[in-house]
Amino acid sequence: MRQVAVSAAMLMAALLAACSGAGSTPAQGGPASVKPVAAITGSPAPPAASPLEGTWRSGKVTEHEWVRWYKAAGGTDVLWNGHRYGSVTAAGKAFFGQLGNGARRYAVITIRFKSGYFAEFESGDGRPAVQGDDQTYTISSGRTLTMTFNGSAPCTGVYTFRVTGRRLRLHVVKQCVGPLVGPFPTTLYASFPYTKVS
């Protein structure tokens, strides 16, 4: 009985050595090296980037559309610089007119999300884009975006976002609240769709 147990143990050791490929070389058909423990145990992969990451661009936005969205965002007859206009429509037109150093026919807005840093660029009537805004951001619960403006009038805005194919839509949960700030980022970021460009 003892001899059968020893033989079974020797057979098991021989099978394990044959299966592991220990001591074999590529010329013998076995593996040249053993995989690291992390590859065998399935260590977690680094977190995937959010689908929000990248550069997104609006279509050509006209003054009429811009004024409508500014009103819908709660715009008033006073702009962020404190200048008062005769009506909400006049303020919305002035807001549009300053985009990209002077929009008359249309404006194109480009936004970029990269590693917690947000930047917004504006082009008026096809001219080269100029930077209009920069903020920091965080993403939570997969689809909640919190953007924080750290300038002279700090404020935080909260949005949900939806990416469908190459299209992005932001929806306001809480407007950026600060002195004369609220409707401006809402108009810029949550009024129209963006298309991914990179």
Plain-language structure description:
- The chain has one domain (54-196).
- Residues 1-41 have low confidence and may be disordered.
- It is globular.
- A hairpin with a 2-residue loop joins β6 and β7.
- The chain has an eight-stranded antiparallel β-barrel.
- The chain is an alpha+beta fold and 198 residues long.
- It is built from five helices and eight strands; from the N terminus they run ααβααββββββαβ.
- α3 crosses α4 and α3 packs across α5 (183-189).
- Helices cover 26% and strands 29% of the residues.
Attribute tags:
198 residues, alpha+beta, 8-stranded antiparallel beta barrel, 5 helices, 8 strands, 26% helix, globular, disordered N terminus
Order of helices and strands: HHEHHEEEEEEHE
Number of strands: 8
Oligomer: single chain
Percent strand: 25-35%
Largest sheet: 8 strands, antiparallel, barrel
Low-confidence stretches: 1-41
Our count of domains comes out at: 1
Per the principal axes of the C-alpha atoms, what is the gross shape?
Answer: globular
Mean pLDDT: 80
Number of helices: 5
Percent helix range:
25-40%
Report, as a whole number of angstroms, the end-to-end distance.
73 Å
Radius of gyration: 29 Å
